[in-house]
Amino acid sequence: MRFMIDREPLTIEVLAGSNGSRPAVLDRVIGATIYLDEAKRIGHHLLTITEGVVPPQGFRVLSQSHQLIYAWHVGDDGPKN
After folding, report:
1. pLDDT band at 20 (very low <50, low <70, confident <90, very high)
2. What span, in angstroms and rounded, lies between the C-alpha atoms of 15 and 25?
């Protein structure tokens, strides 16, 4: 895997249903990767291992400046990659 110095580390958050205007964050991995495809794989893996009173409903990938890059929710159609 090549290293890209101009890319920012991404944050992956596992989400529960929203409690108003913002979803509840069940788990967060900061700086896991700089590659979006890898962040998606990590997000799907985190969905399978995150436990709690409320089941995970999806995940999102954020930039270092907390901008939304990608979001996936349980029930979304299409590939999980």
Report:
1. low
2. 5
